[in-house]
Amino acid sequence: MSSIKMNIQHVYNWLPEEDILRQGPTATACNQALYDGSREGSDFLGWVKLPSTITEDQFKEIEDAAVSLRSACKVVVVVGIGGSYLGARAIIDALNNSFDWLQTKRERPVIVYAGNSLSEDYLYELIKYLEDKDFGIINISKSGTTTEPAVAFRLLKDLLEEKVGKSEARNRIIAITDAEKGALRTLATIEKYKTFVIPDDIGGRYSVLTPVGLLPIAVAGFDIRKLVHGAATMEKNTGANVAFEYNLSAIYAVIRNELYKKGKKIEILVNYHPKLHYFAEWWKQLFGESEGKDNKGIFPAAVDFTTDLHSMGQWIQEGERTIFETVISIKEPNYKVVIPHDNQNLDGLNYLEGKRVDEVNKMAELGTRIAHVDGGVPNILIEIPKLDEESLGQLIYFFEKACGISGYLLGVNPFNQPGVEAYKRNMFALLEKPGYEEETRAIKQKLSDLYKG
Ligand SMILES: O=P(O)(O)OC[C@H]1O[C@](O)(CO)[C@@H](O)[C@@H]1O
Fold this sequence. Notes:
Bound molecules: 6-O-phosphono-beta-D-fructofuranose
Order of helices and strands: EHHHHEHEHEHEHEHHHEHEHEHEHHH
Radius of gyration: 23 Å
Distance between the termini: 68 Å
Strand content: 5-15%
Oligomer: single chain
Helix content: 40-55%
Largest sheet: 5 strands, mixed
Shape: globular
Mean pLDDT: 97
Low-confidence stretches: none
Strand order of the largest sheet: 1-10-9-7-8
Number of helices: 17
Protein backbone atom coordinates (compact mmCIF):
# COMPACT_ATOMS: atom_id res chain seq x y z
CA MET A 1 0.00 0.00 0.00
CA SER A 2 1.30 3.48 -0.87
CA SER A 3 1.76 5.96 1.91
CA ILE A 4 1.02 9.64 2.07
CA LYS A 5 4.05 11.83 1.36
CA MET A 6 5.01 15.28 2.57
CA ASN A 7 7.14 17.80 0.68
CA ILE A 8 8.48 20.63 2.83
CA GLN A 9 11.08 22.15 0.50
CA HIS A 10 8.95 25.28 0.15
CA VAL A 11 9.21 26.19 3.82
CA TYR A 12 13.00 26.33 3.85
CA ASN A 13 13.08 30.01 2.70
CA TRP A 14 11.43 30.87 6.00
CA LEU A 15 12.53 27.96 8.11
CA PRO A 16 15.93 26.36 7.40
CA GLU A 17 16.01 22.58 7.67
CA GLU A 18 18.39 22.75 10.65
CA ASP A 19 15.84 24.84 12.60
CA ILE A 20 13.25 22.14 12.01
CA LEU A 21 15.62 19.33 13.01
CA ARG A 22 16.63 21.21 16.16
CA GLN A 23 13.05 20.88 17.41
CA GLY A 24 13.10 17.09 16.88
CA PRO A 25 13.77 16.05 20.49
CA THR A 26 11.08 18.43 21.83
CA ALA A 27 8.52 17.12 19.34
CA THR A 28 9.43 13.52 20.15
CA ALA A 29 8.92 14.25 23.85
CA CYS A 30 5.48 15.73 23.06
CA ASN A 31 4.65 12.63 21.03
CA GLN A 32 5.81 10.40 23.90
CA ALA A 33 3.50 12.30 26.26
CA LEU A 34 0.56 11.21 24.11
CA TYR A 35 1.48 7.62 25.01
CA ASP A 36 2.44 7.99 28.66
CA GLY A 37 -0.22 10.59 29.53
CA SER A 38 2.29 12.79 31.30
CA ARG A 39 0.84 16.12 30.14
CA GLU A 40 -2.44 18.02 30.24
CA GLY A 41 -5.47 16.33 28.78
CA SER A 42 -4.24 12.83 29.61
CA ASP A 43 -7.85 11.66 30.15
CA PHE A 44 -8.51 12.10 26.43
CA LEU A 45 -5.85 9.97 24.77
CA GLY A 46 -8.04 7.03 23.76
CA TRP A 47 -7.66 7.93 20.07
CA VAL A 48 -3.86 7.42 20.09
CA LYS A 49 -3.94 3.62 19.86
CA LEU A 50 -7.51 3.33 18.60
CA PRO A 51 -6.89 2.26 14.98
CA SER A 52 -4.75 -0.74 15.93
CA THR A 53 -7.09 -1.88 18.70
CA ILE A 54 -10.52 -1.97 17.05
CA THR A 55 -11.67 -5.58 17.31
CA GLU A 56 -13.39 -7.87 14.82
CA ASP A 57 -16.49 -7.84 17.06
CA GLN A 58 -16.61 -4.05 16.99
CA PHE A 59 -16.34 -3.94 13.20
CA LYS A 60 -19.01 -6.62 12.91
CA GLU A 61 -21.46 -4.86 15.22
CA ILE A 62 -21.12 -1.62 13.24
CA GLU A 63 -21.41 -3.40 9.88
CA ASP A 64 -24.49 -5.36 11.01
CA ALA A 65 -26.21 -2.22 12.25
CA ALA A 66 -25.35 -0.50 8.95
CA VAL A 67 -26.86 -3.35 6.93
CA SER A 68 -30.07 -3.31 8.92
CA LEU A 69 -30.46 0.49 8.66
CA ARG A 70 -29.67 0.34 4.94
CA SER A 71 -32.29 -2.31 4.31
CA ALA A 72 -35.02 -0.30 6.08
CA CYS A 73 -34.19 3.19 4.82
CA LYS A 74 -33.82 5.11 1.58
CA VAL A 75 -32.57 8.14 3.48
CA VAL A 76 -30.53 8.24 6.69
CA VAL A 77 -30.27 11.47 8.68
CA VAL A 78 -27.05 11.85 10.64
CA VAL A 79 -27.86 14.15 13.56
CA GLY A 80 -24.86 15.74 15.27
CA ILE A 81 -22.67 18.83 15.40
CA GLY A 82 -18.91 19.46 15.44
CA GLY A 83 -16.95 16.30 16.07
CA SER A 84 -20.18 14.35 16.20
CA TYR A 85 -20.75 14.74 12.44
CA LEU A 86 -17.81 16.39 10.67
CA GLY A 87 -15.65 13.26 10.48
CA ALA A 88 -18.43 11.18 8.94
CA ARG A 89 -19.32 13.96 6.51
CA ALA A 90 -15.67 14.49 5.58
CA ILE A 91 -15.20 10.86 4.59
CA ILE A 92 -18.62 10.30 3.01
CA ASP A 93 -18.35 13.42 0.86
CA ALA A 94 -14.79 12.58 -0.16
CA LEU A 95 -15.74 9.06 -1.27
CA ASN A 96 -19.24 9.61 -2.64
CA ASN A 97 -20.20 10.43 -6.17
CA SER A 98 -20.38 14.23 -6.41
CA PHE A 99 -24.04 13.91 -7.48
CA ASP A 100 -24.89 11.13 -5.09
CA TRP A 101 -28.29 12.46 -4.05
CA LEU A 102 -29.37 12.66 -7.71
CA GLN A 103 -28.67 8.99 -8.45
CA THR A 104 -31.92 7.13 -8.94
CA LYS A 105 -30.84 3.48 -9.12
CA ARG A 106 -29.49 3.23 -5.60
CA GLU A 107 -28.16 0.43 -3.46
CA ARG A 108 -27.31 2.74 -0.59
CA PRO A 109 -29.36 5.31 1.24
CA VAL A 110 -28.93 9.02 0.70
CA ILE A 111 -27.17 10.49 3.73
CA VAL A 112 -28.35 13.89 4.92
CA TYR A 113 -27.33 15.86 7.98
CA ALA A 114 -29.21 17.68 10.72
CA GLY A 115 -28.54 19.15 14.13
CA ASN A 116 -25.53 21.13 12.89
CA SER A 117 -27.28 24.51 13.02
CA LEU A 118 -30.38 26.13 14.43
CA SER A 119 -31.73 27.21 11.06
CA GLU A 120 -35.50 26.94 11.07
CA ASP A 121 -35.71 26.98 7.27
CA TYR A 122 -33.22 24.13 7.02
CA LEU A 123 -35.26 22.02 9.41
CA TYR A 124 -38.54 22.90 7.69
CA GLU A 125 -37.13 21.93 4.29
CA LEU A 126 -35.62 18.73 5.68
CA ILE A 127 -38.92 17.71 7.26
CA LYS A 128 -40.76 18.40 3.99
CA TYR A 129 -38.19 16.32 2.10
CA LEU A 130 -38.48 13.43 4.55
CA GLU A 131 -42.27 13.38 4.75
CA ASP A 132 -42.68 10.89 1.92
CA LYS A 133 -39.35 9.05 2.36
CA ASP A 134 -38.46 5.85 4.17
CA PHE A 135 -35.95 7.34 6.51
CA GLY A 136 -33.93 6.48 9.61
CA ILE A 137 -31.83 8.46 12.08
CA ILE A 138 -28.36 8.13 13.54
CA ASN A 139 -28.38 10.48 16.51
CA ILE A 140 -24.89 11.34 17.73
CA SER A 141 -23.97 13.37 20.80
CA LYS A 142 -21.18 12.57 23.22
CA SER A 143 -22.52 14.80 25.98
CA GLY A 144 -26.06 13.98 24.98
CA THR A 145 -27.09 17.52 25.89
CA THR A 146 -26.08 19.68 22.93
CA THR A 147 -28.94 21.97 21.89
CA GLU A 148 -28.62 21.85 18.09
CA PRO A 149 -28.84 18.04 17.67
CA ALA A 150 -31.38 17.74 20.50
CA VAL A 151 -33.77 20.17 18.76
CA ALA A 152 -33.36 18.39 15.41
CA PHE A 153 -33.81 14.95 16.94
CA ARG A 154 -36.97 15.92 18.78
CA LEU A 155 -38.54 17.05 15.48
CA LEU A 156 -37.31 14.10 13.43
CA LYS A 157 -38.28 11.52 16.06
CA ASP A 158 -41.84 12.92 16.08
CA LEU A 159 -41.99 12.81 12.29
CA LEU A 160 -40.70 9.25 12.11
CA GLU A 161 -43.01 7.95 14.83
CA GLU A 162 -45.96 9.63 13.12
CA LYS A 163 -45.02 8.03 9.79
CA VAL A 164 -44.15 4.47 10.79
CA GLY A 165 -45.31 4.09 14.40
CA LYS A 166 -43.27 3.98 17.59
CA SER A 167 -42.24 0.37 17.24
CA GLU A 168 -40.85 0.60 13.66
CA ALA A 169 -39.26 3.97 14.51
CA ARG A 170 -37.30 2.15 17.20
CA ASN A 171 -35.77 -0.10 14.49
CA ARG A 172 -34.71 2.91 12.49
CA ILE A 173 -33.09 5.01 15.20
CA ILE A 174 -29.56 4.41 16.44
CA ALA A 175 -28.07 6.53 19.21
CA ILE A 176 -24.33 7.05 19.65
CA THR A 177 -23.47 8.62 22.98
CA ASP A 178 -21.79 8.29 26.36
CA ALA A 179 -22.00 4.87 28.06
CA GLU A 180 -23.93 6.23 31.04
CA LYS A 181 -24.36 10.00 31.17
CA GLY A 182 -26.54 12.52 29.34
CA ALA A 183 -30.07 13.00 28.11
CA LEU A 184 -29.51 10.96 24.95
CA ARG A 185 -28.37 7.92 26.94
CA THR A 186 -31.47 8.21 29.16
CA LEU A 187 -33.75 8.56 26.14
CA ALA A 188 -32.12 5.65 24.33
CA THR A 189 -32.56 3.42 27.37
CA ILE A 190 -36.23 4.36 27.79
CA GLU A 191 -36.99 4.02 24.07
CA LYS A 192 -34.82 0.88 23.71
CA TYR A 193 -32.81 2.21 20.78
CA LYS A 194 -29.82 0.35 19.45
CA THR A 195 -26.84 2.25 20.84
CA PHE A 196 -23.10 2.58 20.37
CA VAL A 197 -20.78 4.07 22.96
CA ILE A 198 -18.37 6.96 22.50
CA PRO A 199 -15.50 6.09 24.84
CA ASP A 200 -14.97 8.48 27.73
CA ASP A 201 -11.35 9.04 26.75
CA ILE A 202 -12.03 10.18 23.18
CA GLY A 203 -13.20 13.77 22.58
CA GLY A 204 -15.62 14.63 19.76
CA ARG A 205 -13.05 15.98 17.32
CA TYR A 206 -10.89 12.85 17.68
CA SER A 207 -13.84 10.44 17.38
CA VAL A 208 -14.15 9.78 13.65
CA LEU A 209 -12.70 6.26 14.00
CA THR A 210 -15.22 5.33 16.74
CA PRO A 211 -18.84 4.45 15.82
CA VAL A 212 -19.41 8.23 15.59
CA GLY A 213 -17.77 8.20 12.17
CA LEU A 214 -17.65 4.51 11.33
CA LEU A 215 -21.40 3.82 11.50
CA PRO A 216 -22.52 6.60 9.10
CA ILE A 217 -19.58 5.78 6.81
CA ALA A 218 -20.57 2.09 6.76
CA VAL A 219 -24.25 2.99 6.16
CA ALA A 220 -23.12 5.10 3.19
CA GLY A 221 -21.52 1.93 1.81
CA PHE A 222 -17.81 2.51 2.38
CA ASP A 223 -15.22 0.10 3.70
CA ILE A 224 -14.54 1.01 7.32
CA ARG A 225 -11.93 -1.73 7.65
CA LYS A 226 -9.79 -0.15 4.94
CA LEU A 227 -10.27 3.27 6.52
CA VAL A 228 -9.11 1.99 9.89
CA HIS A 229 -6.29 0.02 8.25
CA GLY A 230 -4.99 3.24 6.69
CA ALA A 231 -5.15 4.95 10.08
CA ALA A 232 -3.38 2.02 11.76
CA THR A 233 -0.56 2.29 9.21
CA MET A 234 -0.14 5.93 10.14
CA GLU A 235 -0.40 5.08 13.85
CA LYS A 236 2.62 2.83 13.36
CA ASN A 237 4.50 5.33 11.20
CA THR A 238 4.08 8.16 13.68
CA GLY A 239 4.77 6.26 16.90
CA ALA A 240 6.90 7.86 19.60
CA ASN A 241 9.62 5.35 18.71
CA VAL A 242 9.85 6.58 15.11
CA ALA A 243 12.84 8.90 14.55
CA PHE A 244 11.80 12.52 14.09
CA GLU A 245 13.22 12.71 10.53
CA TYR A 246 10.77 9.99 9.45
CA ASN A 247 7.81 11.02 11.58
CA LEU A 248 5.59 13.08 9.26
CA SER A 249 3.13 14.17 11.96
CA ALA A 250 5.93 15.38 14.22
CA ILE A 251 7.62 17.27 11.37
CA TYR A 252 4.36 18.92 10.34
CA ALA A 253 3.66 19.89 13.97
CA VAL A 254 7.11 21.47 14.31
CA ILE A 255 6.89 23.39 11.03
CA ARG A 256 3.52 24.95 11.84
CA ASN A 257 4.67 25.96 15.32
CA GLU A 258 7.95 27.44 14.08
CA LEU A 259 6.13 29.34 11.31
CA TYR A 260 3.66 30.60 13.92
CA LYS A 261 6.55 31.96 16.00
CA LYS A 262 7.69 33.83 12.88
CA GLY A 263 4.33 35.58 12.54
CA LYS A 264 2.52 33.14 10.27
CA LYS A 265 -0.71 33.20 12.26
CA ILE A 266 -3.05 31.66 9.71
CA GLU A 267 -2.81 28.23 8.11
CA ILE A 268 -4.83 27.66 4.97
CA LEU A 269 -5.65 24.06 4.11
CA VAL A 270 -5.90 23.83 0.34
CA ASN A 271 -7.51 21.17 -1.83
CA TYR A 272 -7.91 20.87 -5.58
CA HIS A 273 -10.94 18.58 -5.44
CA PRO A 274 -14.18 19.97 -4.01
CA LYS A 275 -14.99 16.56 -2.54
CA LEU A 276 -12.46 17.43 0.15
CA HIS A 277 -14.39 20.51 1.29
CA TYR A 278 -15.76 18.79 4.38
CA PHE A 279 -12.43 17.15 5.11
CA ALA A 280 -11.17 20.70 5.59
CA GLU A 281 -14.15 21.47 7.84
CA TRP A 282 -13.19 18.47 9.99
CA TRP A 283 -9.55 19.65 10.03
CA LYS A 284 -10.61 23.17 11.03
CA GLN A 285 -12.42 21.88 14.11
CA LEU A 286 -9.57 19.52 14.97
CA PHE A 287 -6.95 22.27 15.04
CA GLY A 288 -9.21 25.20 15.96
CA GLU A 289 -10.68 23.64 19.10
CA SER A 290 -7.39 22.00 20.05
CA GLU A 291 -5.09 24.99 19.78
CA GLY A 292 -7.16 28.17 19.96
CA LYS A 293 -6.91 28.93 23.68
CA ASP A 294 -4.91 30.89 26.25
CA ASN A 295 -4.89 33.73 23.66
CA LYS A 296 -2.76 31.58 21.36
CA GLY A 297 -3.12 29.38 18.31
CA ILE A 298 -2.89 29.40 14.52
CA PHE A 299 -6.22 30.29 12.88
CA PRO A 300 -7.13 27.31 10.69
CA ALA A 301 -8.73 28.36 7.41
CA ALA A 302 -9.48 26.44 4.22
CA VAL A 303 -10.02 27.00 0.52
CA ASP A 304 -11.16 24.85 -2.42
CA PHE A 305 -8.96 25.48 -5.45
CA THR A 306 -9.12 26.30 -8.25
CA THR A 307 -12.60 27.63 -7.31
CA ASP A 308 -11.35 29.99 -4.61
CA LEU A 309 -8.38 31.17 -6.65
CA HIS A 310 -11.03 33.29 -8.34
CA SER A 311 -12.15 34.80 -5.05
CA MET A 312 -9.48 34.42 -2.36
CA GLY A 313 -6.50 34.04 -4.70
CA GLN A 314 -5.83 37.78 -4.70
CA TRP A 315 -5.64 37.94 -0.88
CA ILE A 316 -3.42 34.90 -0.66
CA GLN A 317 -1.07 36.24 -3.34
CA GLU A 318 -0.76 39.82 -2.12
CA GLY A 319 -2.57 40.33 1.19
CA GLU A 320 -1.00 40.51 4.65
CA ARG A 321 1.91 38.09 4.87
CA THR A 322 0.72 36.23 7.95
CA ILE A 323 -0.28 33.00 6.21
CA PHE A 324 1.10 29.66 5.16
CA GLU A 325 -0.53 26.95 3.09
CA THR A 326 -0.87 23.22 3.53
CA VAL A 327 -1.94 21.60 0.28
CA ILE A 328 -3.61 18.20 0.07
CA SER A 329 -2.78 16.85 -3.36
CA ILE A 330 -4.32 13.69 -4.82
CA LYS A 331 -1.78 11.85 -6.97
CA GLU A 332 -4.17 9.87 -9.15
CA PRO A 333 -7.84 10.68 -9.67
CA ASN A 334 -10.33 7.80 -9.70
CA TYR A 335 -11.62 8.54 -13.22
CA LYS A 336 -10.29 9.73 -16.55
CA VAL A 337 -11.68 12.62 -18.61
CA VAL A 338 -9.80 13.79 -21.71
CA ILE A 339 -10.17 17.23 -23.28
CA PRO A 340 -11.56 16.82 -26.81
CA HIS A 341 -10.57 18.45 -30.13
CA ASP A 342 -12.80 21.22 -31.45
CA ASN A 343 -12.65 22.15 -35.14
CA GLN A 344 -13.46 25.81 -34.55
CA ASN A 345 -11.24 26.17 -31.50
CA LEU A 346 -12.99 29.43 -30.61
CA ASP A 347 -12.07 28.96 -26.95
CA GLY A 348 -8.42 28.45 -27.94
CA LEU A 349 -8.24 25.22 -25.99
CA ASN A 350 -6.97 22.90 -28.72
CA TYR A 351 -3.49 23.15 -27.21
CA LEU A 352 -4.92 21.03 -24.40
CA GLU A 353 -6.45 18.46 -26.76
CA GLY A 354 -5.85 14.90 -25.59
CA LYS A 355 -4.76 15.95 -22.12
CA ARG A 356 -6.54 14.70 -19.04
CA VAL A 357 -8.36 17.33 -17.00
CA ASP A 358 -6.16 16.28 -14.09
CA GLU A 359 -3.03 17.32 -16.01
CA VAL A 360 -4.48 20.83 -16.22
CA ASN A 361 -5.48 20.70 -12.54
CA LYS A 362 -1.95 19.59 -11.58
CA MET A 363 -0.39 22.45 -13.56
CA ALA A 364 -2.78 24.86 -11.83
CA GLU A 365 -1.62 23.34 -8.55
CA LEU A 366 2.07 23.64 -9.39
CA GLY A 367 1.71 27.12 -10.88
CA THR A 368 -0.20 28.30 -7.81
CA ARG A 369 2.33 26.84 -5.41
CA ILE A 370 5.21 28.60 -7.19
CA ALA A 371 3.25 31.88 -7.35
CA HIS A 372 2.28 31.78 -3.70
CA VAL A 373 5.79 30.85 -2.54
CA ASP A 374 7.13 33.72 -4.69
CA GLY A 375 4.51 35.93 -3.04
CA GLY A 376 5.79 35.09 0.45
CA VAL A 377 3.58 32.16 1.46
CA PRO A 378 5.38 29.09 2.87
CA ASN A 379 3.96 25.88 1.46
CA ILE A 380 3.67 22.35 2.84
CA LEU A 381 2.56 19.71 0.33
CA ILE A 382 0.83 16.53 1.47
CA GLU A 383 0.27 14.02 -1.29
CA ILE A 384 -2.16 11.14 -0.98
CA PRO A 385 -2.05 8.33 -3.55
CA LYS A 386 -5.80 8.25 -4.27
CA LEU A 387 -9.11 9.38 -2.87
CA ASP A 388 -9.97 6.09 -1.20
CA GLU A 389 -10.61 4.70 2.27
CA GLU A 390 -7.01 3.65 2.87
CA SER A 391 -5.54 7.08 2.03
CA LEU A 392 -8.18 8.98 3.97
CA GLY A 393 -7.58 6.77 7.00
CA GLN A 394 -3.89 7.67 6.84
CA LEU A 395 -4.69 11.34 6.49
CA ILE A 396 -7.07 11.35 9.46
CA TYR A 397 -4.54 9.84 11.80
CA PHE A 398 -1.69 11.93 10.38
CA PHE A 399 -3.57 15.11 11.32
CA GLU A 400 -4.83 13.80 14.68
CA LYS A 401 -1.34 12.87 15.78
CA ALA A 402 0.11 16.13 14.43
CA CYS A 403 -2.55 18.07 16.32
CA GLY A 404 -1.76 16.38 19.63
CA ILE A 405 1.96 17.03 19.22
CA SER A 406 1.39 20.56 17.94
CA GLY A 407 -0.85 21.50 20.87
CA TYR A 408 1.79 20.34 23.33
CA LEU A 409 4.51 22.22 21.40
CA LEU A 410 2.35 25.34 21.63
CA GLY A 411 1.96 24.80 25.37
CA VAL A 412 -1.83 24.33 25.47
CA ASN A 413 -4.08 21.43 26.41
CA PRO A 414 -5.13 20.13 22.97
CA PHE A 415 -8.00 18.07 24.40
CA ASN A 416 -10.35 20.57 26.02
CA GLN A 417 -12.55 23.34 24.61
CA PRO A 418 -13.63 25.55 27.52
CA GLY A 419 -14.21 28.56 25.25
CA VAL A 420 -17.15 26.90 23.49
CA GLU A 421 -19.24 27.22 26.65
CA ALA A 422 -19.41 31.06 26.51
CA TYR A 423 -21.98 31.26 23.71
CA LYS A 424 -23.98 28.41 25.23
CA ARG A 425 -24.20 30.17 28.60
CA ASN A 426 -25.44 33.38 26.98
CA MET A 427 -27.90 31.54 24.74
CA PHE A 428 -29.33 29.61 27.72
CA ALA A 429 -29.54 32.81 29.75
CA LEU A 430 -31.36 34.61 26.93
CA LEU A 431 -33.72 31.66 26.45
CA GLU A 432 -34.33 31.64 30.22
CA LYS A 433 -33.36 27.99 30.63
CA PRO A 434 -34.20 26.70 34.12
CA GLY A 435 -31.06 26.79 36.25
CA TYR A 436 -29.72 29.91 34.48
CA GLU A 437 -31.73 32.48 36.45
CA GLU A 438 -28.66 34.39 37.66
CA GLU A 439 -27.14 34.49 34.16
CA THR A 440 -30.48 35.63 32.73
CA ARG A 441 -30.62 38.53 35.14
CA ALA A 442 -27.00 39.49 34.38
CA ILE A 443 -27.34 39.36 30.61
CA LYS A 444 -30.57 41.33 30.64
CA GLN A 445 -28.82 43.99 32.70
CA LYS A 446 -25.90 44.02 30.25
CA LEU A 447 -28.26 44.41 27.29
CA SER A 448 -30.17 47.23 28.92
CA ASP A 449 -26.88 49.03 29.76
CA LEU A 450 -25.66 48.55 26.19
CA TYR A 451 -28.79 49.89 24.52
CA LYS A 452 -29.61 52.58 27.08
CA GLY A 453 -30.33 55.90 25.38
O1 LIG B 1 -21.17 15.33 20.83
P1 LIG B 1 -21.65 16.53 21.55
O2 LIG B 1 -21.49 16.39 23.03
O3 LIG B 1 -23.07 16.85 21.16
O4 LIG B 1 -20.76 17.76 21.15
C1 LIG B 1 -20.67 18.22 19.84
C2 LIG B 1 -19.60 19.23 19.69
O5 LIG B 1 -19.81 20.30 20.59
C3 LIG B 1 -18.62 20.63 21.27
O6 LIG B 1 -18.64 20.03 22.52
C4 LIG B 1 -18.50 22.10 21.49
O7 LIG B 1 -19.63 22.57 22.11
C5 LIG B 1 -17.55 20.04 20.40
O8 LIG B 1 -16.35 19.88 21.07
C6 LIG B 1 -18.20 18.76 20.00
O9 LIG B 1 -17.57 18.17 18.90
